[in-house]
Amino acid sequence: MKKHWLLGASAALVLSTLPINGSPAIAQIFNAGSTIAQNVLRQPKVNLHLVADQQVVTKQQGKEVIRWQPIDGNVKAKQGDLIRFTVTGKNEGSRDARNVAITQPIPQGTIYQLNSATIAQAITVTYSIDQGKTFVVQPTVKVTLPNGKVEERPAPAAAYTHVRWETSQTLQPDAIVSAAYQVKIR
Question: Does position 37 have pLDDT exceeding 70, yes or no?
Answer without folding.
Answer: no
